[in-house]
Amino acid sequence: MKHVIDAGTDAASLLLFDPGALPEDFDTATDPDPVGLLERMQGAGRAYWIDTHADGAYVLHAYLDEPVPESLATHTRNPVVVDSFQVPTGRLYFTGSEYAGAGVDGGLSRYPHMGGQLETRPGVYRLTVYETEYPADLDEDVLRQQVSPGDFRVHQSMGFFVWLAILCAVGFAIALFGDILKPWRYYLLPLFAAGIAWPFVLARLRPYRDTHERYRAIQREHPAYVVRLEWRGDLS
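Request: output the structure for the sequence above.
Response:
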């Protein structure tokens, strides 16, 4: 069975874990070597730690007792295997490491975009974790095939209009408070204001919203990480 989980981190670190497998003092203990602690937990099969090297949002595809499909497997790299990965409660979370622990549900109720979970049967699993690597502009190429040329151009123009809005904001401030553009102030201010507003107008247009929704769906089909979980038996 396939599961798709979105997670985020402000600490450049993600954790795949069952709360029941974490040490009892995980939430309260202070460790002089937190990275070493996560590595030891991974070695014991009690969690899997991912150093993302950057803050941000990440997508995970998890496959339970089935192989990774060939369409995705061709993009997987650097497999790491944990032969005895513990899932004692059957609730497997993928979150920023700063949200891991017994209070994970409370944290995710406030910030649901920072992680999610899947449910499976409790036990010991063989866990394989892959990183992924895709051709440049893959998401854009797929989007181009799925929408009309006009809708694609509208969607791709957002970056240009965001930069235009930034420049217009600078120009607006100079025209309003500086002396350089003072003679043309009353002509330029409406133009600069329109430039600032345009990305917000574009984001509300139906063609852009529909195309962006399609783009997000495409991105979620190209995860940053892929895991395969193979059930090996009950916890002894």
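The helical segments are 34-43, 70-73, 104-110, 138-146, 149-156, 158-177, 185-204, 206-220.
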